[in-house]
Amino acid sequence: MDARLGNTVNEVFLKIPPGETRKLFKKLGEEAQKEGIIYEDDDGTIHPVPIMARPRIIRPEQEQYFHKVCLELTRALEKLAALYIEVPSVRALLPFTEREERWLRDIWAKVGKQPQTVVARLDANADFATDDWSEGFHFFETNSVGVGGMYYAPKAAEILQRVVVPAMQKRAPALVLKAQDDMRQLLLEQITIHAKLIKKRRINTAFLQERDAVGGPNEFPYLVEYFKSQGVPAVLVDPRELRRKGDELHAGDLPIDLVYRDAEIGEYIALEEDGADMGALRAAFMKNQVVSSIAGEFDHKSTFEVLTTPELASHFTQRQQKIFRQHVLWTRIVRETRTTDLDGQPVDLLPWLRRNKDRVVLKPNRSFGGTGIVVGPHVDLAAWDEAIAEALSPAAAETGGVVAQQYVDVKVKDFPILSDGAVSLEEFYVVCGFMATPRGVGILGRASKKRVVNVGQKGGLTAVLVMV
User: What are phi and psi of 125, to 5 degrees?
Assistant: First the structure.
């Protein structure tokens, strides 16, 4: 509740007459479809991504806090490549295939002393409406390659402001909201900064995406159009079609200065193994022309083991270590080892995991999309033991292993829904993805009826707006 409104946001929404509300729901769906807010399943089926009918609201002081914390965590992630090369105990926690490591080391030998730019979405549990909102703010994973939501988040907010907010403001004139920072603009600014760091006078940008890729959001064409609308030459190009002409990269006839990628190097290696020529892309990496830079390759969930293990966290600044302690969830790769538990006490990890299933979640280390997660408090002991056994299997090791992570209750919020022509409130699980740059922070809000909140798991979008 905001004292200026005298009501919760839901109460303001429910003051809208039913007939008008039904029109708003219809318009929301139409606008989302028109603006391309859709998701493609792995079988090629396309479906619209729902936009929840009322916004989540943050205050300016919260926005400032999230910006400060998320920017510091992103800067910490930019250090991981150097630590991987220099510190064997860090290297052991961030598994790569042999060919991935070869690419990584070859590239790092060329660019390791140059500035690294990581564009990351930091997924977190966040409740903006409670008094202890900063204490309940916890990160559970990073996404530092091909960040999803950079088009969805600002567009969902724009649609809600255009369609729903005016109707709410008629019932609550004190409800004055503004858009959060636009992730598309933050990306453009980061690419501009990186171009200056590597002494590029232009910022002609190639968005790298396989032309025959199936599944997931398809935001890159919209990002290309956004860059063009801002006067920046940009093109969507398949990584196999990037070419070298003398000292320059080219995509067709366009000389390219920066490449924004949507895939980890493992996917480019797979194309190479199928006979594709990845020489131009390798050259781009070697010249530090790729964003996220090679430092973004450390997208493992086990990065949080590095950050939450005291002797490894000591490689970071005091300020960063404080953020790790306050906001990063305890995480460990499932294996036989001696470590510290959630309370900082020394334990043998496997027996501790078996005794403490209600405090832990198991997640595949290098997968995405919300698949393969086992939530300890919501399975029986037999299923938990089976999940631990699978985590220790050679098959799991081949794909990067499995992490155990501290369990926290996913936040739950009520949202208006339309059912059989009537409006009511239903509970949804909600999470947020934060993208921070030196200038600002953008927030991708998501909601789902499932505890694993992901658009790929039939979730929806929650527009996050700032109270003025």
Answer: -90, 120
User: pTM value?
Assistant: 0.94
- Distance between CA atoms of 145 and 142, rounded to whole angstroms? 9
Q: Alpha-carbon torsion 58, 64, 67, 70, what sign?
A: negative
Q: Where are the domains of the chain?
A: 9-67+122-177+412-467, 71-118+185-297, 330-406
pLDDT tens digits, 421-452? 899 999 999 999 999 999 999 999 999 987 76
Residue whose token pair is 């139409």: 30
Q: Which two tokens stand for residue 66?
A: 């999230």
CA distances from 461 to 74, 217, 339 (A): 24, 13, 38
Structure tokens at 404: 């155990």
Cβ contacts of 80-83, under 8 Å, gap ≥ 24: 80/295, 80/298, 80/303, 80/306, 81/108, 81/112, 81/116, 81/294, 81/295, 81/297, 81/298, 82/112, 82/295, 83/306, 83/315
Read off the tokens for 100: 């991935």
Is CATH 3.40.50 the classification given to domain 71-118+185-297? yes
CATH class of the domain at 330-406: alpha beta
My answer on whether omega of the bond before 292 falls inside 30° of 0, hence cis, is yes
